[in-house]
Amino acid sequence: MKSGISRRSFLCTLAGTGTSVVLSGCASTRISARPGLDLLILNGMLLDGTGSPERRLDLGIRDGEIVALGDLSSATASRIIDAKGLKVVPGFIDIHSHTDLDLLKNPFAPSKVRQGVTTEVTGQDGESVAPIGGVGMPEALRAFRETYGFECPYRTMDEFFTFLAAQGTTQNILSMVGLGTLRSVSVGFDDRPATSEEMAAMKDAALRAIEQGCWGASTGLEYTPGSFASTAELADVMGALPAEHRLYATHMRNEDNRVLDAIKEAIAIAQASKARLQVSHLKAQNKANWPKQEIALRMLDEALASGLEVHVDRYPYVAFNTGLTNLFPLWARDGGTEKFLERLKDPSLVARLRADVQRKVDGLGSWDSVLLSTVKVEEDKKYQGKTIQQIIHEESVDPYEFAVALQLREKAEVGMVGFGMDEAGTEMVLAWKNSMVASDAGPHFPGDGSWPHPRSYGTFPRAIAHYQRTRRITTLPDMIRKMTSLPAEKLGLKTRGTIALNMAADIVLFDYATINDRSTFTDPHQFPEGIPFVIINGVVVVDDSAQTTAKPGGVMRS
User: Fold this and answer.
1) In the prediction, which pLDDT does 35 show?
2) Position 33 pLDDT exceeds 90
3) Which pLDDT belongs to residue 32?
4) What residue spans in the chain does CATH classification 3.20.20.140 cover?
5) Alpha-carbon gap, residue 161 to 53, rounded angstroms
6) How many CB atoms lie within 10 A of CB 133?
7) Is 275 in contact with 269 (CB distance < 8 Å)?
């Protein structure tokens, strides 16, 4: 986000610094101010997040803000960090995250904080934590109670934000409102058009969510009930939002065989509603579709040239993470979870279901491309981290029958990792001028009983270490831009995303030579290396590679 003054000007204007400073290139300007900073970072190589080359600059922080930049070697501070040999960059903004309800179990979000994520944008893929209501309300409240051990204390986004703020968080948290969630409340889980009354209710609910602090709206058009919304319905609801909050983040209707049609629909919705488009985790799944990746980017370039604001986000891995239900056809999921489970048990539907699932698996390559991640039933924990191909080899079972039995035991709450993308396409998306790095993941910690996708622990260090340092798909300043100022601009965050005077002091220090992701698909609970310090709102939350118990973050309402 542009600060309103030139870089030369802000370096020459150190309002409220804690020292006398001489800055090169500023005509030997000397500025005196009251002594004493909360935190002083010396001797680092600073990348400001804008894409500009790195510079040797010290940084001073007071009251959670950046108040000094320059040669601060004679400054005084409550604490000094010697950043010699380290890069000093803005805190990473995870613009497509699923860090929301998990914060109720662990507000420190260690797998995210330890990789440098200081701000998270939740409520993605059409699902926000609220509003809660409609036919799905009893099931939602039951699931919450079973998961967290207490009654759900909120029904609206306002109540959720208030509850989360009272609990406290390490990071800054923002949320979108999920249009799939709004449809579930107003229409239900059936595959049918919304009535005029239901349309009015969804528009009203979307506006209320924005008024309560959401930053835009998201869709998950491969998931029910969002998948049952028409193009016209989505454009109509988006068009009802205030212009400044008409950010449309979409998990498109298809990401494999019909990915180009899905791109067309996303562009059409943004054009009709005058929304600012963000294509979530852009990819072309399945080998047969890999050549479409270049075409998809060309289509987005054409939309940009027409005057539409278009961005994409992407995680730096060739495997996606979703629910195992995504292997099953939409018609089988019509009406919600209970009806889906009933269809799985219906003998008359077995042949049709088996054929549809097998087509999906064949697109990925084989059952070896389907790795099981999250399960809840204790007897199924032994399957976490294994592919279905491994399981059927060990247990001599039919893969489709095993998948169905697992779904029935787990009540359709099974996570899977699908190995469906290629390195060339991944590099192409990450290198595109308007792409942003995002985890598409929630927070985890060793011993939490989960089996997460490695992106939960390693997204941002991997983007730097593998795709920039090793593969050289772009420059380091540009890769940092994709993690900081670009998502801040997309959101309209005026005080984060760049290192400049009067900006919030969200800062990451990393060793460019050693930064690496360590999490793997077979051993996911591993923190990255090479990130010794993370600072949020001026407070050190990762100190010499160990996370503290500080909770300086909070809810950021629009």
Assistant:
1) 55
2) no
3) 32
4) 92-321+420-494
5) 38
6) 17
7) yes
